Amino acid sequence: MPTCADVSVRAVRYCEQQGLLIAERSPSGRRLYRQDAVALVCFLQQMFAAGLTSRRITELLPRWDSGHTDADRRAMLRAERDRIQAKIDDMQAALDRLDEVIAITDTHP
């Protein structure tokens, strides 16, 4: 899973292209980002890694800013959480099985 240390210029530009991050421009044309841009891009990378689409992430962003949501959005958030948890459970089962195979093969020369 990406960490905030993994935020690259490429990731920032991609988030801009997707309309997920807005930069203002200085008089000289330099991009100016909001103070929490690194944390936001980190969050966006995590959501992409979890399989959320740009559209779904766009629905989440107002919650990021306000910390408030309605019942429909909370239901959507819970559904995404359940989907991600199912992926984690599947991966954990695969990891457990792999550990079993490793343990068996460790007993052989």
Notable traits:
109 residues, mainly alpha, 4 helices, 2 strands, 65% helix, 4% strand, flat
- Please tell me the overall pLDDT: 86
Distance between the termini: 35 Å
Total helical elements: 4
> What value does the Rg take, in angstroms?
19 Å
Q: Indicate the overall shape.
A: flat
Number of strands: 2
Percent of sequence in beta strands: under 5%
Spatial order of the strands forming the largest sheet: 1-2
SSE sequence, one letter per element: HEEHHH
User: Which range best describes the helical content: under 10%, 10-25%, 25-40%, 40-55%, 55-70% or over 70%?
Assistant: 55-70%
User: Strand pairing plus helix content: what structural class?
Assistant: mainly alpha
Uncertain regions: pLDDT < 50 for 5+ in a row? none
Q: How is the main sheet built?
A: 2 strands, antiparallel
How does this structure look, described?
- With 109 residues, the protein is mostly helical.
- The protein is 65% helix and 4% strand.
- The protein has four helices and two strands.
- It has helices spanning 9-17, 37-49, 54-66, 71-106, and strands at 24-25, 31-32.
- A two-stranded antiparallel sheet has the order 1-2.
- The longest helix has 36 residues, at 71-106.
- The chain starts with 8 loop residues before the first helix and ends with a helix.
- The model has no long low-confidence stretch (mean pLDDT 86).
